[in-house]
Amino acid sequence: MFQNTAKPRGRPRTFDESDALKKATQVFWSKGYDGVTIDDLVAGMGVGRPSLYAVFGDKRAIFLRVLKSYAEAKGARAANALLSPQSLRDSIGAFLHYAVESATEKGSARGCLLICVAPLVDDDEVRKFLQKAAAGGAALVEGRFRDAITAGEIPSDFPAAERAIQVTDFARGLTMRALIGTPRKTLLEDAEEAADLVLLSRRGNPQR
């Protein structure tokens, strides 16, 4: 019986794929989508041009992969902040605090790639991805409101869907203000006020 002694084709990878995508994120952050070239990605990701095309594809494909990876990581952390065992008011506050903290994280670009860079890309797939991500965020918050209704924290007629959109709109607004340099302390204070606002009943009484 013969053994297959053929060696695998090609050279083994000398880079970590996940790490290369993180580096690509920084490249797109620093230059925007339109300003980035393949040479920028080769240099920034630390991947040779042949390997870059073979593993990641062209600039558009790399950007889409970056977006998906970035959104998954941010979404998981936002969900953790929102769904950790605590009161509804604290959950909404934690969700908005996370938006501020991630947008003002020391050592990284201010803002959010999904809010500050991706919307400027003229591409149907990117737009659909952003719409899906926004809908997913609102659905997550709406689910938290509905759990609170079931638990008796808020009235059964609380407008969960509408208020969920308001929460995610507040998060985007705080992120954009971080991008233009609004101090973190100010944004965190505003996040607290926003959490109170979305929990006002129709009669104007806070639901806590």
Q: What key phrases describe this protein's structure?
A:
single chain, 208 residues, mainly alpha, Tetracycline Repressor, domain 2, 9 helices, 0% strand, disordered N terminus, TetR/AcrR family transcriptional regulator, DNA binding, DNA-binding, transcription, transcription regulation
CATH third-tier fold name of one domain: Tetracycline Repressor, domain 2
CATH homolog superfamily of one domain:
Tetracycline Repressor, domain 2
Q: Specify Rg, calculated over alpha carbons.
A: 21 Å
SSE string? HHHHHHHHH
Gross geometry = elongated
- Return residue spans where pLDDT drops below 50 for at least 5 consecutive residues: 1-8
State the CATH architecture of one domain: Orthogonal Bundle
Q: Helix/strand/pairing class, anyone?
A: mainly alpha
**Largest sheet properties:** none
CATH class assignment of one domain? Mainly Alpha
Strand content: under 5%
Q: How much helicity do the residues have?
A: 55-70%
Distance between the termini: 74 Å
Protein name: TetR/AcrR family transcriptional regulator
GO molecular function, one term: DNA binding
Organism: Bradyrhizobium commune
InterPro entries: Homeodomain-like_sf (IPR009057), HTH_TetR (IPR001647), Tet_transcr_reg_TetR-rel_C_sf (IPR036271), TetR_C (IPR011075)
Short overview:
This protein is 68% helix and 0% strand. With 208 residues, it is mostly helical.
Could you describe the 3D structure shown?
The chain has helices at residues 17-35, 38-45, 49-55, 59-83, 88-103, 113-116, 124-150, 160-179, 184-198. The radius of gyration is 21 Å and the shape is elongated. The longest helix is centred in the middle third of the chain and has 27 residues, at 124-150. With 208 residues, the chain is mostly helical. Helix 4 (59-83) packs antiparallel against helix 5 (88-103), helix 5 packs parallel to helix 8 (160-179) and helix 5 packs antiparallel against helix 9 (184-198). The chain is built from nine helices and no strands. The protein has a domain at 67-198: Tetracycline Repressor, domain 2. Helices cover 68% and strands 0% of the residues. Residues 37-56 bind DNA. Residues 14-74 form the HTH tetR-type domain. This is TetR/AcrR family transcriptional regulator. Keywords: DNA-binding, Transcription, Transcription regulation. GO terms for molecular function: DNA binding.
